[in-house]
From TrEMBL:
PANTHER family assigned to the protein according to its UniProt record, in alphabetical order: GH26575P-RELATED (PTHR11733:SF241), ZINC METALLOPROTEASE FAMILY M13 NEPRILYSIN-RELATED (PTHR11733)
Descriptive protein name: Uncharacterized protein
UniProt xrefs under PROSITE patterns: NEPRILYSIN
InterPro entries named among the record's database cross-references: MetalloPept_cat_dom_sf (IPR024079), Peptidase_M13 (IPR000718)
The species this protein was found in: Amblyomma americanum
GO terms (BP aspect): protein processing
Superkingdom, taxonomy of origin: Eukaryota
GO molecular function terms listed in the Swiss-Prot or TrEMBL record: metalloendopeptidase activity
Length: 396
């Protein structure tokens, strides 16, 4: 920092950081004195503060799966293509608004804590070489830890984004950083059971990470109730968004869920529409990938056809190799797609499983049932009649 910013700026930065720590200690003095519990919580919180910059990155390096970023990018890419090319989602938007939405979503990328976007390798964690004795009293160990902390902070002060990302790792939830156009995925979601990097079909991951990434895409668009980004929509799209909210609310009522709580109605409606759209995005992305990989898996055996059989295929039956390939692809799709859907729907529901049925803002059952019961594909797979799923599907 001295080289980049100058001695004066480096000194001011470190002095301000030290002063903030002293003020924090003094402000908590009365609270600490109240009981041993408060003292323990304070010590734990302050210890965590020492690790705010470094711990998340160090933990992520040890726990992250090297292949996870590629798998996550593929899932995100398939959903982005489903919006821009196949137009399977956001069908309630008018053409112009939908095109702007597709363009905005295409700019998003997935990043992980241990990835290249958040590189802290220039920080020397080994110097100064201070030994921490576990038998020493807490205060002495804390001062030593703070010394190490400030040496790191002064050597390479974290950027605002780095501090935010570090906090996200502890929060354990996917988060959107709009200014960077990043979807940040904590290490927790780079491993099973959320994400399988090896030896499983794609549909295992689309039900979980596809749903979570889809929710971030929906948030980017601004589908939340009273979101400021809706001011850029055309009037017809804004009207249809209101109709979608009313349609989903009526379906929820038909399924027997209680009325929205007045204090949290906006949050409940926002989560309802966000998850409904995320399920559609994940489904559309999976369907696109399933078809593409189904065709690829057929190419080797087709190329191994003998010249005689290929001639008979083309001349005798007047059927081209291309048509044959397409028909085989359809057969493979029809044979394996139902099972893929069962796993996809099951994994999407398991994603929201919780021992608590308290609303947050929707209950775990609502998070599972509301999005899936709004999909014709779910009703067809399990032979549900329209009355049991809440009537006609609301277009997402």
């Amino acid at each position: 920092m001295v080289v980049k910013r100058g001695l004066r700026n480096a000194t001011f930065y470190l002095a301000t950081s030290l002063e903030a720590d002293v003020v924090y200690i003094l402000s908590m003095k009365d609270t600490i004195a109240q009981s041993e519990v408060y003292k323990a919580l304070y010590c734990l919180g302050f210890t965590y503060k020492c690790l705010t910059l470094t711990w998340a990155f160090l933990a992520a390096r040890h726990l992250a799966e090297p292949r996870s970023i590629g798998v996550l990018q593929d899932i995100l890419g398939a959903m982005q293509e489903a919006v821009s090319e196949e137009r399977d989602a956001f069908v309630w938007m008018e053409e112009a608004t939908r095109n702007k939405t597709a363009a905005a979503l295409s700019k998003l990328s997935v990043h992980v804590i241990a990835g290249k976007a958040f590189n802290v390798t220039s920080v020397d964690y080994n110097k100064p070489d201070v030994k921490l004795d576990v038998d020493e009293n807490f205060l002495k160990v804390l001062v030593t830890a703070l010394k190490l902390h400030h040496s790191v902070m002064s050597a390479k002060p974290p950027t605002r984004v780095e501090m935010l990302v570090s906090e996200l790792e502890f929060r354990g939830a996917l988060s959107l950083i709009p200014i960077m156009e990043y979807i940040v995925v904590p290490t927790l979601y780079q491993r099973d059971p959320y994400l399988y990097n090896y030896h499983v079909p794609d549909y295992f991951n689309y039900g979980t990470m596809g749903g979570l990434l889809g929710a971030q895409l929906a948030e980017t668009v601004g589908v939340a109730v009273n979101d400021d980004r809706q001011s850029t929509w055309d009037p017809a799209t804004a009207t249809k968004h209101g109709e979608l909210l009313r349609c989903l609310t009526e379906r929820r009522r038909h399924l027997g869920f209680p009325d929205f709580h007045p204090a949290t109605a906006d949050q409940q409606q926002t989560q309802m529409v966000t998850l409904s759209i995320s399920a559609r995005l994940a489904y559309s992305g999976l369907k696109r990938v399933f078809r593409r990989k189904g065709l690829q898996s057929l190419e080797p055996p087709i190329l191994k056809l003998s010249n005689i059989s290929l001639t008979l295929l083309v001349t005798s039956d007047c059927v081209s190799l291309r048509v044959f390939s397409q028909s085989r692809t359809v057969k493979v799709f029809n044979d394996y797609w139902p099972e893929a859907l069962r796993v996809f729907f099951s994994r999407f529901c398991l994603l929201w499983c919780s021992g608590s049925q308290a609303a947050d803002p929707l209950t775990a059952r609502e998070k599972c049932v509301l999005p899936l019961y709004n999909m014709e594909e779910f009703a067809e797979l399990y032979n549900c009649d329209a009355n049991s799923t809440g009537g006609a599907v609301c277009p997402t």
